């Protein structure tokens, strides 16, 4: 007896459903516990990478020792190239042992008049070894170019290793990397600084205010040593602009204010 077209279609649909649900056999030689859900390959890779890693305690003496070592390495660097190598050699930030492929220091012109500081590298940045090269970075580049700032920036982050799951870096992790960020500022002595997002703004400005209060308001960043200072413009992170396109107008106004300030300083 031949099955009808409708029955065949229903059977094919049911088999397709089972296939998509993960059914790969009608029977087996031994029972298998299907209730155990294995972690995805990415999670396994992270687990293997971190299985033997004991993160350095980021509090008390451990934090102070790491900051001191970072400051020693940063102070010894006399160029951004040397500073990038010092970052790569630094072992005091636990993020480097949480699955990151490599350190991600910076890109752009070391003699640029504008220092741009973001939060931390993501997956594409971790793979390529440069900050802001993913979708958010491409948006940032387009906005900088439209504001007349193309080729006039050096871009870095508050931390130099990708946080697991692209989470926001902790204040302690930022504190450990801060000597390198400050040394970048001291070596460049830029005419202005652009801070991208709340995490970067709070870290650099040592502020508890949210980015919606900070953005669009000129602040000052002054180092305790070296008599280095510059005006700072906090703005929204490009990744946030991708999620909330209606806020691009605010970020655009911030970039134009930065461009005008540079022109007036010429």
Q: What is the fold's blueprint, element by element?
A:
Layout: H1 5-21, H2 41-50, H3 60-76, H4 80-89, E1 107-108, E2 114-118, H5 123-128, H6 135-146, E3 153-157, H7 171-188, E4 192-196, H8 198-205, H9 211-214, E5 219-222, E6 229-235, H10 238-243, H11 248-265
Parallel strand pairs: 2-3, 2-4, 4-6
Antiparallel strand pairs: 1-3, 5-6
Q: Can you walk me through this structure?
A:
It is a single chain. The chain is an alpha/beta fold. Helices cover 47% and strands 11% of the residues. The protein has helices at 5-21, 41-50, 60-76, 80-89, 123-128, 135-146, 171-188, 198-205, 211-214, 238-243, 248-265; strands at 107-108, 114-118, 153-157, 192-196, 219-222, 229-235. It has a six-stranded mixed β-sheet, sandwiched between helices. Strand 5 (219-222) and strand 6 (229-235) form a beta hairpin. Helix 3 runs parallel beside helix 7 (171-188). The chain starts with a helix and ends with a helix.
